[in-house]
Specification:
The chain is of the alpha+beta class. The protein is 18% helix and 33% strand. Strands 8-13-14-11-12 form a five-stranded mixed sheet. A four-stranded antiparallel sheet has the order 3-2-5-6, with no helix packed on it. β11 and β12 form a beta hairpin.
Length: 250
Amino acid sequence: MRASVSAALLSLLAASAVTAQVRKGGISGIVKDSVGLPIPDVEIGDLAAGKSVRSDSLGHFILADVPSGNVDITFRRLAYAPVVLLITIPPADTTDVQVVLGVAVQELKGMVVQAHPDQLRQLVAFESRRKRGIGHFITRQQIEDRHPLLLSDMLRTIPGAILINADNGRTSVRFSRVARNNCPPQFFVDGIEVTGFSIDDMPPGDVEGVELYAGAAGLPPEYNRLHGTSICGTVVIWSRIPSTAKARTP
């Protein structure tokens, strides 16, 4: 009888432990820049759970239903250096945090100011290249169909594309033909070459399309720079134009 009681007690304790482990909490807080101004539209994500939210116009956010315990939470926004914080989430409670993002310093080789009509013409060229089938392309429709948490998730089905997780939490892209030499591709955003750029610095919701070229073959001449690294591959990202977003029907 005593052995049966002990076994039942152990089972009860085990069930209680499992229940405690699956209890969830949340994170709330505000995201600011280095001078204390709130940053809107920051993507806050729990990569392990595949959940994300965005900060509001005052930088505030709430990320609910997060498993209790130590959780890696990412904070990302274009033009800011991404941050990954290990936050302890108490069961059935909310942790308040204040996060500061620093501006990501990038060297821009030339400055071009583009109006919406210019970008629309470039997106027409994007569609023309996509129909010719030279290189690999990711469209807005594909992004909406998959609902990726990170833009790099869209590259996992691209032949020859390799994703590397760096120690700083950023994701690097390599192409298989030059991956052994750790040769980073060149990046362009809306036709402007950018350096020190990670594929996940651009939230998927801000992307209209992506072009990927594994080498110089088939690369449009405007991206084949004299002193560039086109032999290592090229990634061209086109941002969305708010006025061209499809209207939602009720």
